[in-house]
Amino acid sequence: MTSLRPNNTLVAVAWLSTLTDLPVGGIATTLPRDPATWQTNGFVTVGPVVGGSPGVEMPTRHPVLQVQTWANGGQSAKPPWNKAEQLAEIILAGCQGAVRPHSSVVLTLPAAYSAARLLGAYGISEPRRLPSDVASYARYEVDIQIDWVPL
Hints:
By secondary structure, the protein is of the alpha+beta class. Strands 1, 2, 3, 4, 5, 6 and 7 form a 7-stranded mixed beta sheet that branches. It has helices at 8-16, 81-98, and strands at 27-28, 43-54, 61-72, 105-107, 116-123, 128-130, 137-150.
């Protein structure tokens, strides 16, 4: 059986999961149903793709993705804005560390998918504070571009 092809979202989640200061198991495309599971460390959601382009002559991909960072105040009505913003800052710092001439990182994706090679990651915007539907949630958004190739 052939492996499934990697996609932009899976590659972004896999790369963000390599950043040591982000919550372990706290990166996905949607928030968990139970907010208590991410109250202590916050959460990162990836998507959607908002721009970028595939390579014309090479199999490279260059998507721009919106990444949202979340924190919840539990029983408090005051959102923990600093915690959500700190997660966004960790992502931007990770982008600066991911850009190294003549280097790349092989990312392991879920079992059914082929691996991918990250060539670089770039912060495209400053973190933006966003309102949330739930009063005790704090949410920030940052746009990143990742450059990658399927293996």
